[in-house]
Amino acid sequence: MNSVKLSLFFLVLAVGGGCKTQTETEPVESFFFRSAMVDNQSSPTLNFRNVSSKPTIKINFSAPLDRNSAAKTITLTDSKTNTAVALKYDFSGNDTTVTATVQNPLAAFTSYKLNVEPTLVSQRQTALNSNISINLVTALDSTDKFPRISDSLLLDLVQKQTFKYFWDFGHPVSGLARERNSSGDVVTSGGSGFGIMAIVVAVDRKFITRQEGLDRLVKITDFLKNKTKTHHGAFPHWLNGATGETVPFSQKDNGADLVETSYLMQGLLTARQYFNGPNASETALRKTINDLWDAVEWNWFTKSGAETNLYWHWSPTYNWDMNMPIRGWNEALITYVMAASSNTSAIAKTVYDNSWAQNGKMKNGNSYYGIKLPLGPANGGPLFFSQYSFLGINPHDLTDAYANYWEQNTAHSLINYNYCKANPKNFSGYGENCWGLTASDEQNGYSAHEPNNDNGTISPTAALASMPYTPSQSMQAMRFFYYKLGDKIWKNYGFVDAFNLTNLWFADSFLAIDQGPIIVMIENHRSQLLWKLFMSAPEVKKGMKNLGFQSPNL
């Protein structure tokens, strides 16, 4: 009896031990994303750049996937158009890893988003605990976008195509340069000065005939003399190209802009020296230019001679309220050269020393990337500092009490190049082929880009207008811009104003003050044409000597 009871006891124990009570359940599965790799590269932020056109995207999870669910919930789309990209899915690691590969090559320089929906489930039908987004930006398509030509022909092409901005797009009434390609009747005085110098290049390069260039300059100068509203002989920054009325640049900047006026006069004097023929038309052009030149009351901008500072603005309604002395180092050296060279109202050397040079305070003397910078802010500032004034002023062997200007401009350009090459902020595209920071459009506005104000925006004019100072580096950039990025940035008027490869942004704008220096500085590199012309003006020779400049060209 006892043995029977014992057997029954063990039988019940065996059966009972193999069953779950009502309170027992399966362990809860934790299903979550672990990691992602694209082309065998990882990124803690899930942002991948320079991705190949047929990338391998590997995503790892904490539990085996339901394969059917994965195919429905893991998708790749073009970030801009939201177009879906066909994927092929492979599984490994006991189905904890899915590898997605594209069926057709992705477009270059394009942003894509791989999304993993939270409706993805594991093999045990556990839902993913969160949405996963992986951002991919494809790499540059390194193929040439245009047939290779010689560097000399490429320089011709860039100058000729860029010139169209001033020739084909010049204002139909005044012939002046529109401020930008979307500005309608708004033309720019300084940009028109650059455009006048571009016309001289176009005549000399035979892009247009001498007569065509002369006719356009007659239209421009007649409009400036007879229709444009000036302020003590100086021109506003912007004006209406049809009526000549001042267009305010800002509320109080609704009158004279002396710096922009100096750019205009730089161009006019250069044209005067070029169109030196004895015929009646060229003689009349020179007279009109001289009338415009002699009308500017340069010394009046020292507040009627009361100060040893030269002031940038004057307003007929706000007078001197903007109160901005023109001080260096920046783009305005030409203003002092013009003011000292005037036949009618020249400034004294004391104004140059006190206001511009601040009696030596504009000196730098520090080294950046192993390059000593004589003047200006840390790292040199935006590259237009070394370009706008030197469209006409020849910096070769040019010195004064403060600097050797060839050394200054070359150092500035090389620092900018080396900064982009070092790429301390790790922006996409920066390097020896893609460099150049200056004032230009950017994705959401306009800014003076430079090493201390860098958001990844490259401006083609920066490197191209540095051609005299950095010929090999600038030529390298030109080849890259044309052959490699040409499908994005080469348009009807040359290269667009700017681009940002980090943000995959390409401007659709062109600005007169950026297009002009490309043409002019390339020509100064090739033939020194504009330097020779401007420096041949007797007033310029006298004015620069009076300021203390020394050069074999004076």
From TrEMBL:
One of the Pfam families matching this protein, by short name: Big_5
Which stretches make up the SbsA Ig-like domain? 41-128
Q: Which InterPro entries match?
A: Cu-Rt/internalin_Ig-like (IPR014755), Glycoamylase-like_cons_dom (IPR019282), SbsA_Ig (IPR032812)
Q: Which domain of life is it from?
A: Bacteria
Q: Which UniProt keywords apply?
A: Signal
Q: Which residues form the Glycoamylase-like domain?
A: 325-537
Gene3D superfamilies noted in UniProt:
1.50.10.140, 2.60.40.1220
Q: What is this protein called?
A: Beta-glucosidase
This chain's source organism reads: Larkinella terrae
Q: What is the lineage of its organism?
A: Bacteria, Pseudomonadati, Bacteroidota, Cytophagia, Cytophagales
